[in-house]
Design goal:
With 465 residues, the chain is of the alpha+beta class. The protein has 17 helices and 14 strands. 49% of the residues lie in helices and 12% in strands. Pathway: Lipid metabolism; bile acid biosynthesis.
């Protein structure tokens, strides 16, 4: 009895030490970067500049190391050659628990247990957001983008903040494409921004009631997505019907509101940066504009320069984390035949932004090059590190089971937005340089600018075109 008690106390003490300091390094485990602060560990440094922190750790400890973040051990793997091995290790590394925890905290829904209902819900993404189903959504998106541009411009010059202008157009078009006309009326964007502003704290577990204006904004958003409009997309209709079978109306509203955030939070800044980089680079703007003028935007596959420009913008502005939970004590195989030991309950994290800014992979990585992702023959370009091909050189949408299921529609929307803006509007930046990225949301996706970018905009008349 006494021995059993000692064992329980020892395990509890070991867990407490791990939560506070990261614990002792066991054989085969990655090196532990000792934190200055107990429990919080490196959380504050990550919040200031995640990529800078990881680069510093990489220089000192190599491509695999362990950080303590809010009481959790996180093993960061920054060698892109190992990424496919991590993403395929689904027997020992899982995502469902992490995604479920973040989603329920941030959007207030009650989780749907793993099983047939959840499988059916996740299957809807593949059935409605890619392949043949993508065509009608893309056509509808073009229609709503043109309507939104028309609403927010005139024949006379208007002074605008480019980020705000992009957000108004993208939000209206994206919402109307998915949920139908009328859903993006006055106030809808403000309510979205209120929830998005506090998303990092919501995801971390701070109650919505403790954050200014979040509950009221959420309630209005729930009211907007509740009615099924006659022109709502097949995806939203199918999702609503399935949710109605497996949960109550209130919870169904919360799930639909989660789709609002998922469809907008990264697309808004991605569209802004793609257009801003092209406007800020005259040769790139001229090349892409000529391509769109010549081929139109009806077939986006015929616009490789525009696609490469979007990819280059995503390389520069996306800073997502791909995280997995370690289910059981195990060994994880990495590139080059190396293995690392992992403990149950630890987390494994990939931060593609380190790869995106690696000068060995991307020459002059801080500079926007619109044709970076095009080979001399016009097809996709290959990239290498240490003499080996990098299998996934661009990861703005995560990877594996947690890869964003709406990425194809998001890419199409960003390309359509930039293509229409360049060919149907006159847009001039009225300041000499683009702002840096806002690093306070590092790890959560595409980053916003630290400040607004001033410009002037008008519709392009046929006489001026």
């Amino acid at each position: 009895m006494l021995a059993s008690l000692r064992t329980v106390l020892t395990r509890a003490t070991d867990r407490a030490v791990v939560h506070v300091t990261g614990g002792a390094r066991r054989p085969g485990e990655p090196p532990i970067v000792r934190p200055r602060l107990p429990f919080l560990g490196h959380a504050l440094e990550m919040g200031r500049d995640l990529t800078a922190l990881l680069r510093e750790c990489q220089r000192e400890h190599g491509d695999v190391f362990t950080l303590l973040v809010a009481g959790r051990r996180m093993h960061f793997i920054v060698d892109p050659l190992s990424y496919p091995l991590v993403l395929k290790a689904q027997d020992n590394l899982t995502f469902h628990e992490i995604g479920d925890e973040i989603g329920s905290r941030a959007f207030g829904y009650r989780s749907i247990p793993a099983g047939a209902d959840l499988d059916a819900l996740e299957a809807l993404y593949g059935e409605n957001l890619k392949n043949a189903a993508l065509g009608p959504l893309t056509a509808r998106m073009e229609e709503r983008l043109r309507a939104a541009f028309d609403r927010h411009t005139s024949d006379d010059w208007r002074d605008e903040g480019l980020f705000d202008f992009s957000a108004r157009v993208i939000f209206a078009a994206g919402m109307e494409t998915l949920f139908g006309d009328g859903v993006a009326e006055d106030g809808a964007l403000d309510d979205f921004r209120r929830q998005d502003r506090w998303f990092p704290l919501l995801a971390a577990g701070v109650p919505a009631a403790a954050l200014p204006g979040v509950l009221r904004a959420r309630e209005r958003a729930l009211w907007r997505v509740d009615p099924m409009r006659p022109d709502a997309s097949a995806f939203i209709r199918a999702r609503d019907l399935l949710l109605a079978k497996i949960t109550d109306r209130r919870n169904r509203q919360h799930f639909q509101n989660a789709i609002v955030w998922a469809s907008q939070a990264n697309t808004l800044p991605a569209a802004f940066w793609t257009l801003a980089h092209l406007l800020d680079n005259p040769p790139a703007r001229a090349a892409v504009t000529a391509e769109v003028d010549a081929r139109g935007i009806g077939d986006l596959k015929q616009l490789p320069k525009l696609y490469s420009s979007m990819c280059e913008s995503l390389r520069l502005c996306s800073e997502s984390l791909t995280i997995r939970l370690v289910q059981r004590d195990c060994e994880l195989a990495l590139a080059g035949g190396r293995t690392i030991a992992l403990r149950a309950g630890d987390r494994v994290a990939l931060c593609p932004q380190v790869m995106h800014r690696d000068p060995e992979i991307f020459e002059d990585p801080e500079r926007f090059r619109f044709d970076r992702f095009l080979s001399e023959g016009g097809g996709p370009r290959q990239f290498s590190r240490r003499g080996q091909r990098v299998p996934i050189p661009l990861m703005p949408y995560g990877g594996g089971v947690s890869m964003c299921p709406g990425r194809f529609l998001a890419n199409n929307e960003v390309m359509q937005f930039a293509g229409i803006a360049l060919t149907h509007l006159d847009i001039e930046l009225t300041e000499p340089a683009l702002p840096p990225l806002d690093k306070t949301r590092a790890g959560l996706g595409v980053l916003s600018p630290t400040r607004e970018v001033q410009c002037r905009v008008r519709r392009r008349s046929r006489a001026r075109a």
